[in-house]
Amino acid sequence: MTEIIPGLQGDAPANSRKGVPFVAGKTKVAACAKHFVGDGGTTKGIDENNTVIDVNGLLNIHMPAYIDSILKGVSTIMVSYSSWNGKRMHANRDLITGFLKGKLKFRGFVISDWEAIDKITEPPRANYSYSVQAGVLAGLDMIMGQENLVEFLDDLAFQVRNNIIPMSRIDDAVKRILRVKFVMGLFENPLADLSLANQLGSQEHRELAREAVRKSLVLLKNGKITSQPLLPLPKKVMKILVAGIHADNLGYQCGGWTISWQGIGGNDLTTGTTILNAVKNTVHPSTQVVYQDNPDVNFVKSNHFSYAIVVVGETPYAEMFGDSAKLTIAEPGPSIISNVCGVVKCVVVVVSGRPVVIEPYLANIDALVAAWLPGSEGQGVADVLFGDYGFTGKLARTWFKSVDQLPMNVGDPHYDPLFPFGFGLTTKPVKS
């Protein structure tokens, strides 16, 4: 994932000092690596929870991406809401100042998460002055917040005037923030270049996003018998069924943190192509495409479809709203799989931000595709389903059988996944 940093900031010169931020010009932006550190290892995967691991585990599992980010010249690093062995990361001076700024020699600035210093205490804001002191002394250079901005400024100024927070700590924060502003060129060009605004959502950008969709899809199953694959799908048949509300829902394709914090369902969120419309755009003009968001068994049986494309998955979420003890496909998804795949050959496309429980439906499914959150360019899904391009994606994480197996990682003695880390079937493009 750290490869995105030179894409955002530009490639740092070979002779540049390691740990010093670098931004290549006004067509580039400052990158932020987050959430430091151990955010992905919290107990039971619960957002803002406690990561229980020894120092060797923290350094070997959770730290390498930050080390690589710093070597690539990342400008800022955001701290995690979570705790490490019971200590809130936003108050962890040993890791922020001692390790990140000291040992790793990071010279950009460290930023808090949104109103995160409030949560240093339990309950939040139980002692706000202490939270300000603990966060700033831990090494936070920039504090994000809104509701209590004036209170924060007054409290910080009071603590500096009374030598509770030394001026040297403020100087360090100011130097780091100014350093990033200098490398961004904000003193020479303080305003954004609006001439670039019309490039947002351009056809070139959409084609790149479409390519990303094609390459990120993971084919998990292709045929109940390996010698009889279902994919690629034929474009010219009598009639096909597209089923599931996720098939015609840009909001569901995009997920949370799209326009709004939690995202929204429906097709009014943004401009793009739903998977349903992508299918219609791709099949032969003589092929009849029938869409039903929740078809029953009798409907499927009576229509004599050549095959079905079932699109199911999760509804949008972000942060703690995504916490789940079950990690199941949202209803009526499982019912649609049962109603459709028990009657006609089907490919199930799962739209989700993570692996979800697919048992006990897998046996009835002819082909299974993890589409993750494909975003606005659903045409990329159809590109691969119908063989204009081949499947090449591999799982970047283990796909479990049930939540009872979690946590489960490669190398664990009990490692027995539904699909292992790195798994992904391939297909070849169909020659036209």
Explain what you see.
This protein is an alpha/beta fold. It has two domains: 4-194, TIM Barrel, CATH 3.20.20.300; 201-405, Glycoside hydrolase family 3 C-terminal domain (Rossmann fold), CATH 3.40.50. 29% of the residues lie in helices and 12% in strands. The chain has 13 helices and twelve strands. The protein has helices spanning 4-9, 55-62, 64-71, 93-103, 128-138, 149-161, 167-184, 203-216, 250-254, 275-282, 297-303, 333-341, 379-385; strands at 32-36, 50-51, 76-79, 83-84, 87-88, 109-111, 218-222, 239-243, 288-292, 307-313, 346-351, 367-372. The strands form three sheets. It has a six-stranded mixed sheet, with helices on both faces. The chain has a three-stranded parallel sheet with strand order 1-3-6. Helix 12 (333-341) links the parallel strand 10 and strand 11 (346-351). Helix 4 packs parallel to helix 5 (128-138), helix 5 (128-138) crosses helix 6 and helix 10 crosses helix 13 (379-385). The longest helix is centred in the middle third of the chain and has 18 residues, at 167-184. The mean pLDDT is 96.
